[in-house]
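Journal club prep — side note

Before the paper discussion, L.F. wants everyone to see what a predicted structure for a comparable chain looks like in token form. Sequence:
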Amino acid sequence: MEVLPCPRPPFAAPLLRALRLALLAALCAVGLHARAEPQDGITRQVQDLAMAGMAQDGNAARIEVQVGELDHRLRLAPCQRVEPHLLAGTRLWGRTRIGLRCVEGPVAWNVYLPITVKVYGIALAASGPMAAGRVLTDADVSQVEVDLAEDPSPAVADPGLAVGRVLARSVNAGESLRESDLRARQWFAAGATVLVKAGGQGFSVTARGRALTPGVEGRPVRVRTESGRILTGQATGEGLVEMLL
């Protein structure tokens, strides 16, 4: 049996190296000495998940992994080879966990190691404390390094997407601004005259109509055209409704 030294859990390292050290540290924490050798498929899965998270926020700059602890009450049988694995649908983003299973030993076992993956990048943060209902100005936000993965809602990076918007909740000074922190914009009221753009592969048509429901960002809106036909689309701007055919 190969005996590896127990490393200290990493707090700033490339993701794959940090995860490997995390696995070894977790094994040492419960008194095990074993090899942790991720299979090529698992390694690729880790890489793909990490890259998917990074791709969602193109301004991501660095990754930090914080390692939790296995339950110290565990009494796991000795194991010659331990493999890490990911649960179906697991994303290495924010608070998550990685499975550890014994594949060469007298007793098969499977446990889960909690980890927190922090992905840092430049996004907006509140310049000071602000109450819900405030209309944001340029002075209210600043671009700083934040943990993009600390909240399920995407961080807002472009000031143009925040200035003029209304806060849906109170935020503290230095707190990162998330899409869920901003109220949906109402582009037009029910009864307004709107332009409907409908299109598909290789074609597009436009028509005038009257909105039957308010044009709220992210919600469907119903429009009666001049010919009397009722259409449903998405409000995408001032007096504008778009449809895909």
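L.F.'s comment for the group: The helical segments are 15-29, 40-56. Keep this in mind when we get to the figures.
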